[in-house]
Amino acid sequence: MTDAVTLDGEGPIGEFDEKRAENAVRELLIAVGEDPDREGLRETPARVARAYREIFAGLWQQPEDVLTTTFDLGHDEMVLVKDIEVFSTCEHHLVPFRGVAHVGYIPSANGKITGLSKLARLVDVYARRPQVQERLTTQVADSLMEILEPRGVIVVVECEHMCMSMRGIRKPGAKTITSAVRGQLRDAATRNEAMSLIMAR
Ligand SMILES: Nc1nc2c(ncn2[C@@H]2O[C@H](COP(=O)(O)OP(=O)(O)OP(=O)(O)O)[C@@H](O)[C@H]2O)c(=O)[nH]1
Ligand SMILES: [Zn+2]
EC number(s) for this protein (predicted)? Predict the structure, then answer.
């Protein structure tokens, strides 16, 4: 865990205050017309506060905390991990959005690569924050570029937003697809190769 960063969407601006979260949930229950002291709800504020600690755990992590293991394998061709499960929280409505992320990169000329699981961990660092899908996508791409110094990166995220399914416009099944492409993966041929691997089922 590293220190707080205060840029918009870049990290926490204070400590996680579980008691405060608990009080806020209690207030919210009262505000919507519920009785937080009834049997079934008595433990709910504390439970929700603990759940938020987990759901927003990425606020307390930085990409360099998870992209720790790097090896020089001399492999300088594309590495792509697809269908990484994403659970995140829309910062507009504080309801979930979920789907998959595909993360690929072309290692630096000296073949500096990271463990495959680290790419999924990196997605989690940014997904476990109040988010918008576009920022999640660019943060994963930019942090990979910065830390691994690869020749290129591609990140594609496909999610369904509960704020569009269970409320508001109510269009369950609508998928939002965002991508961020950096370096050599901007070249049409390389990008097409990555996209065909991503799209292949
Ligand atoms: N670009 C982007 N928009 C998002 C994301 N998650 C939710 N939104 C949108 O954020 C917008 C917020 O719009 P507002 O008009 O302020 O809120 P609202 O009245 O609740 O909007 P509706 O959802 O249309 O009912 C909505 O259009 C959401 O669909 C995201 O990850 N990226
Ligand atoms: Zn939303």
Answer: 3.5.4.16
Indicate which CATH number applies to the domain containing 172.
3.30.1130.10
Report the candidate in 66, 87, 83 with the shortest Cα–Cα distance to residue 156.
Answer: 83
**Whether the model pTM is above 0.95:** no
Residue identifier of the C-alpha nearest atom 23 of ligand 1: 168
Q: Beta partners for 86?
A: 99
159 belongs to the catalytic site = no
Residue 92 falls in the annotated catalytic set = yes
- d(Cα 163, Cα 173) in Å, to the nearest integer? 12
Q: Report the residue among 8, 139, 158, 163 best suited for mutation to probe ligand 1: largest number of ligand atoms under 8 A from its CB.
A: 163
Domains identified in the chain, total number: 2
Domain region containing 89:
63-199
ipTM metric: 0.92
